[in-house]
What we know:
This protein is an alpha+beta fold. Helix content is 39%, strand content 21%. It has 17 helices and 16 strands. An eight-stranded mixed beta sheet has the order 1-5-6-11-10-9-7-8. It has a five-stranded mixed beta sheet with strand order 13-12-14-15-16, sandwiched between helices. Helix 1 packs across helix 6. Bound molecules: histidyl-adenosine monophosphate. Histidyl-adenosine monophosphate (HAM) binds next to strand 6, strand 10, strand 11 and helix 12.
Amino acid sequence: MQLTKLRGFRDLIGPDARLLGVIEARARAIADRHNVAEVRVPALERLNLYARSTGETSDIVEKQLYVVQRSSEGSGADDQVLRPEGTPGVVRAYIEAGLDRSDPEQRYFYCGPMFRYERPQKGRYREFYQFGVEFFGRPDASADAELMVMIDELRRELDLELNFEINSLGDGRCRPLFRQALLEWGRAHLPELCQDCHQRLERNPLRLLDCKIDVKLTESAPKSIDYLCDECQAHFDSVRELLADAQVPHSINPRLVRGLDYYSRTAFEVVSTGVGAQSAIAAGGRYDGLVEALGGAPVAGTGFAIGVDRLALALDPIKFGVLPDAVLIALGNSALRAAMQLSGEMRAAGLRVEPLSPERGLKALLRRAGKIGARYAVIIGEDEISRGMVQLRDLRQSTQHEVPRAEVTERIAANVASSPRSLGEGAHLEPPTNR
Ligand code: HAM
């Protein structure tokens, strides 16, 4: 019997977990500034929820669901599955709470693991983390733009190079025309299309544009933006105008159709260079018909989800990792009490401090301080206590000075504030600048 982790699943230990934590903390703070409230929904839902939203013919529902329990009827519709994405569960919760009728305009964020049975590779896992935002009751273009501005605020804070690719898929009025045009185009090019596209053509022709094999061929395929009705065109123009005003770096990608079925009008992906093949670090769009399709009132919806793991791949673990500002080294019993007290004062000043075990000698403790990457070691011996002094050792420069105990916290705080240590909570950030 093997007791190792499952393929595509990961243990995130120490710095790896920390990177995700930094992103989540930053994203939560941004959501908070946009007056977006948290929602926590179950990780286990009925299969039917995803069949009716993500799409029966989507890869996610057809091939990637983790079925945890089969229903007794055996129809499959009531099977319990691990959530592959957050949107359907949030919409279900919103309808089930009666908010679609009592108080339709809502803004939520969620954060947590999602599960898809995909072929694992760098940036693609079977358990991965999303940070998502969903707005309800906002049919206007400025809601779509605000969502992208939120992601852009995170991009600026984390100092990343990202591009927003946007498209409009039209609505219930104009999309059927586009779908028909694609269907006709696909039938005319049938001999040149790959086997998968033969299936896509009849079941869900929009997916033709998703094909990774027929990329060149589909360049000549019809584009949704050429089929937009006047209202959808005006909506799309307005989104673009607002993005330009907010200086969000974006371009139109007419091939962007998304792998989930519920989108209408705005669809977008946020891509990063330099994280490998899985370059989409966030994605989203408008889903105006979804609340109604899941049994609720006709309320508009729009949202996004960030792939937190992929965003973490784009971050520099040194810059965003966390190292202790100082370790405390006590030599002797009364020094131990003084060191514990001093470490409390240092934490109160916002420093990251670790008191080391008193059971080893100075040499071993300094080795330990170096190994965990501490910036300073504060060494307290019996002799120093009687004089109100401590030894302050700069572990990067390998220099050591005796300083008054009363001044050591301030000295360290002044030095670590001016050097980059981490973008976690409590760290100091440059104000955002436009690129
Ligand atoms: P999605 O494009 O399926 O959209 O996923 C959003 C993001 O999650 C992707 O851009 C990617 O960064 C990350 N992601 C997806 N699959 C994996 C994986 N196997 N491993 C690692 N990261 C992954 C949605 O899920 C929609 N619910 C987004 C949305 C919210 N639309 C409207 N509201």
